[in-house]
Amino acid sequence: MLWFPFYPAGKPEKNRLSFLSDLNVPCLIIQGTRDQLGGYDWVSQQDIPENVEVVWIEGADHDFKTLKKYNRNVSDTVTQIAKITHHWLVKNI
Fold it and tell me: Which stretches make up the KANL3/Tex30 alpha/beta hydrolase-like domain (predicted)?
């Protein structure tokens, strides 16, 4: 999954963690550290099932955009996501 909406914007108390607990297959979530629907600080404090792997894109938001200080554009981020996904598929499928 790309950019899983862990919770509605501004409402972490209404999280969607139960959806992940119900999964019976391996799952990859690629998430931006600045995602307003589940950033690193919040997600890293949650109990994520072992079959769910969360990979972080440093500085990215929910729309793949990164801060200027990272010197990356959306195309760079999409390329990174493609490489991560390919590696995960080879390892898990």
Answer: 2-88
Separation CA 42–CA 45 (nearest Å): 6
Q: Does 20 have pLDDT greater than 90?
A: yes
The backbone torsions φ and ψ at residue 31, rounded to the nearest 5 degrees and listed phi first, read -130, 140
Q: Which alpha helices (DSSP H) does the chain contain, by range?
A: 17-21, 40-43, 74-92
Is the pLDDT at 88 greater than 90? The verdict is yes
For residue 19, give both structure tokens.
Answer: 């959806």
The 8 Å CB, 24+ separation contacts for 79-84 are 81/2, 81/30, 81/57, 84/28, 84/30, 84/55
Amino acid 28 reads L
User: Looking at the DSSP assignment, which residues form a beta bridge with residue 52?
Assistant: 27
Q: What are the boundaries of each domain within the chain?
A: 12-92
